[in-house]
From TrEMBL:
This is Uncharacterized protein. It comes from the Bacteria.
Amino acid sequence: MSARAIERLNKSAIEVLWNETLRLIAHELLEQRRQNNRLA
């Protein structure tokens, strides 16, 4: 595999991980907000 192909693979893997991380964080924040609303 060429260095450029490996680079491209790494880039897309990082993008996928980043998107998943952001999605999880957003989900956690929504859950927290929902629980705070329940307490208020």
